[in-house]
Amino acid sequence: MVATGNESGGMMVDVVPFHSIEPRSRSWNALSIGGLARKGRLPALPPTLEAVVPANDPGPSRRGSQALADDLMPTKSEMLFGAGNMLPDETGFSLWHEVMSLLTLGSQIASEPLVPFSATSAAAGVAGHVVGRVQAA
Fold it and tell me: Residues 18-36: what's their mean pLDDT?
């Protein structure tokens, strides 16, 4: 399994459009994992903050194979899993935000056992869990 790649943040006009998948996820023998925004709006957010993409849409880390040559490359991404969402500030600059992220185990177990985790790396982690459960069954 290979993550399709991420957008690290920036102005919404640059983050929202689809971008091409990164070279490592273009291989024929890899299961490419893309991101899905599971969280669109949370009640705890100030009313002026809204997620970059609506819930259950391909996330802001989305990348696809639309720009690749049809005759040379497989269609990607093959699976989408939860990847978190970005929040823009008042200028339109968007970044991953912990309230819109998934949680994973932190390296400082005593002080910070859970830490926010976003983008297609988080989606690939969820995919690994699903594939492991399928293989175990």
Answer: 75
Sign of CA dihedral 8, 1, 76, 118: negative
Distance CA 55, CA 38 (A): 5
List pLDDT tens digits, range 32-48. 888 888 766 665 666 66
What rounded mean pLDDT belongs to the chain? 76
The residues near 103 (Cβ < 8 Å, ≥ 6 apart) are: 114, 115, 116, 117
Number of domains in the chain: 1
How would DSSP label each residue in 30-99? S-EEEEEE--S--TTS-TT---SS-TTEEPTT-EESTTS-TTTS-----EEEE---EEE-TTSEEEE-GG
pTM: 0.71
The tokens for 107 are: 């390296």
Q: Which domain holds residue 99?
A: 2-136
